Structure formats: structure tokens, C-alpha cells
Amino acid sequence: MRRRPVLMLACLWPFGAAAGASLLPLVYPRHQALDDPQQAYVTALLQQALARSGHSYALRRSALRMVQTRAMQEIAAASGSVDVVWAMTSRARERQLLPVRIPIDRGLIGWRVALIQARQPDLLRGVRSIAGLARLSAGQMRDWPDSAILQANGLRLDTSSTYEGLFQQLAAGRIDYFPRSVIEAQSELASHARLPLALDAHLVIRYPAALYFFVGKHRPELARHIETGLETMLADGSFAQLFQRHFGRLADGLSLPHRHVLDLANPDLPEETPLARKALWYRSNHY
């Protein structure tokens, strides 16, 4: 009689192992940011989309930290170290990888407010044109599409190979401002509270852009599964609910209606971007 529980566990073990084995591992990159402001939202969105896709995946983070370029190279090479990444789209990125063309940020990756030095709170108060902004130096990562966009619009730019280095450059006065998306700026400022930085209150720099999930071209079925799940979430309203829960009070916190808007062109935006599908994009009542 004493052996019975052991025998029962032995009988149950293959069933549990088989159930665990049925989950397909799906690895996303561990980003350089120590406190990635997008990660909680994006991983929750991806998890829910996968759950609605009709296929079973086990989502986990990569062992190593990676910049976007490295993560995309690993995916393109089918190395197995990363399976999916979220990043702003560009022509080059869509040639390299397979995009899921649903903007998970509703286009807000292209709505930029500036981190500035705390001792210069009115640095951008009088900026009303690209020419005015071009007198100042912006900071960006070298491998971000934003760098090419800012340069294409005639803006001065200093680039860095490290994300954290940009905050240090700004604090030291080696750059004048660091444009961050409205879904990143406040949390990034909070996570770098030890530095003498502030959030500009006067300007929105805006250009058409989209944050997509990208997978390898050798994984078209994975792209279909993610797309199916996202479309289901759009249809049942859970996409909007999740977005609202994470970013719904952005306009209030950033006083967007009171800022001057400076629109830039994005010559690197692929023609396939679904701009005509209005339900996918953030719309402000004031702009």
C-alpha cells in the first residue's frame, strides 16, 4: 500500500512531460535597457496573442542582452537564440525579416518628446520649425531607424553604440536632447532619476512609424500565428483594453494637447505599412 502513491506518480509523469513538451519555445531578446518601459506591455500582448492563435508556445527571454541589430541578425541566421523581436519598421528590416504588419504601439513610436538636461527646462520652448531644432544636437542609437529619419530631415545627430550611454551623454551635455517615444519617456526618466535630466514640456516631434513583431523569413507559420492572435484581440477588444491599461493616460501625463507639433517625413517607411487602416493607429482629438 505504501508504494501506491509512487506508482501513481510514475503513471502521471509521462502525461505531464508530454504536456510540457507540447509547448513550443519562443525566445524574445533581453534588451540593453535595465528597465525596458515597453516590455511589460509587449510581452503581455504577445502572450495573449499566442494564446488566441490556436497554437501552444512557451514565451521566455534570451540568456544574453542584445541590441536590436544583434537580435535581428540572430533571427535572420536562424541561430535559435532568438525567435521574435519587436522593433520599429524600416525598409531594410522588412527585407531582412518577416514583419507582422499590425502596429503594436498604434504608431506612438513615432510620437517623440525630448529628454533634456534639468538645468535647461526651456531649451525647446521657442522651437517652431525643423530649422530651429537643427541648431541643437539630438542623441540616438546607431542601429535605430530614428537616426536615419532625423538625419533625412536635416537634424543634427550624435549616435551611440549603447542605450545607457545616451543618458550619460545627455547628462554630461555632449548632446542637447534625446527624443523618446511617448510610451517610453516618462518611465525612462523615472528609471534614470539619479541623473540630472528632465522631460521637455513644449514640443512633440512626430513622424509616421510602426512598432511590429518581426520573425525570421524561415518562420512564416509563426508570423501567421502571431497575426491571427492579434487580429482576434483587435476584434474582441482585448487589444484596445491592454493598450489602454498601459498607455491610456499618456495624453494627460505628457500634456500633449498643449505642445507644439513638429511633423517630420519618414522616407524609410515601407509602402506596405497599413496607414489606411485607421483603427490600427492612435488618434488624438487635438492633432
Helical coverage, percent range: 25-40%
Strand element count: 12
Mean pLDDT: 89
Give the topology string: H per helix, E per strand. Answer: HEHEHEHEEHEHEHEHEEEHHHE
Shape: globular
Radius of gyration: 21 Å
Low-confidence parts: 1-21
Give the oligomer, counting copies of the same chain as homo and different chains as hetero.
Answer: single chain
Distance between the termini: 75 Å
Structural class: alpha/beta
Number of helices: 11
- How would you characterize the largest beta sheet? 5 strands, mixed
* Amount of beta strand: 15-25%
Question: How would you portray this structure in words?
Answer:
There is one protein chain. By secondary structure, the chain is an alpha/beta fold. The protein is 37% helix and 22% strand. It has 11 helices and 12 strands. The strands form 4 sheets. Strands 5, 8, 9, 10 and 12 form a 5-stranded mixed sheet that branches. Strands 3-11-4 form a 3-stranded antiparallel sheet, with helices on both faces. It has a two-stranded parallel ribbon with strand order 1-2. β1 (24-31), α2 (39-51) and β2 form a beta-alpha-beta unit. α2 crosses α9. The longest helix is centred in the N-terminal third of the chain and has 18 residues, at 4-21. It is globular, with a radius of gyration of 21 Å. Mean pLDDT is 89; it is low at 1-21.
